[in-house]
Design goal:
alpha+beta; two-stranded antiparallel ribbon; about 30% helix; about 25% strand; elongated
């Protein structure tokens, strides 16, 4: 879904079809997504580190890249792994267990350089979704 939005935003009504296809394809390819959720069983992350049931995990490109005791900790580690400092837009979609105050707490978080790049993230949106997870979208150069 985030890739589709990035492609749509790249459309230039005055450009040729070929130019639009090229720009849309580049925009689509620049998007990275991550998911933060709770581990439902003991396991190991992508680097063979232990995960305990109930740990908060961050998944990027299909691999568990972050393990923390809090959502904020997992989000910040995941943003670091996803190289979020290079992103233009950060969109957070929060699950039903994520309170209205939680996105604000993430904005105040000082780990992983997010605070130093706050001006580089023009869009922060939160919405309630049925699953108990938080999805992050990183849009490279759009």
């Amino acid at each position: 879904m985030p890739q589709a939005f990035a492609a749509m935003f790249a459309v230039d009504q005055e450009a040729s079809l070929e130019d639009n296809v090229e720009e849309m394809t580049e925009a689509y390819a620049d998007v990275k997504t991550g998911e933060v959720t709770t581990a439902i069983k003991d396991s190991k992350d992508a680097h063979d580190n232990p995960i305990k049931e109930g740990d908060v995990i961050g998944i990027s490109d299909g691999a568990i890249e972050a393990v923390a005791s809090t959502v904020e900790g997992a989000v910040m580690r995941l943003l670091e792994v996803m190289e979020a400092e290079d992103a233009d837009t950060l969109t957070i979609l929060a699950g039903e267990d994520f309170s209205d105050e939680d996105p604000e707490a993430l904005e105040r978080e000082d780990r992983a350089g997010l605070r130093g790049h706050r001006d580089r993230f023009p869009s922060r949106r939160a919405a309630a979704l049925p699953p108990s997870s938080c999805r992050l979208s990183r849009d490279g150069n759009r």
